[in-house]
Model the fold of this input.
Amino acid sequence: MQSEFILLAKIVLSAILGGIIGFEREVADKPAGLRTHMIVGASATLLVGLGTSIALSFPDDSLIRSDPIRIIEAIIVGISFLGAGTIFKQRDEEGVAGLTTAASILFTAGIGIAVALDHYILAGGVTVLGVLITYVLGRIEPRIKNMKGS
Done:
């Protein structure tokens, strides 16, 4: 039972870290915001945590083999599908919108996986990096585009 509380604490941490990135997306009025990012981070941690439990349930001499990498691959596939839903072609322009949000959803899944694997400093540092990328560079990018257009 103690391991379940530890996993639950990890899931809460992942939701909080994902929420930090999601908050920036929410403020920027993007298609996937606070709740989506929180759920993505938390679900990645949950799935890796459950996968670890499953792997420990079968001895090495069992006919059933577990592969933790497959769990991470499945998370990435599922999150990629979710991220694809945030990408759309702009009708009035030749551009595409939602790519950064899709990338931030994938990034948040990575944070959840890092927390599940007990890489807390990495998860926290990557969260800060994600906010810097989406917020700070999001403010600089239009200026760069204006310089290129001039």
The chain has a mean pLDDT of 87.
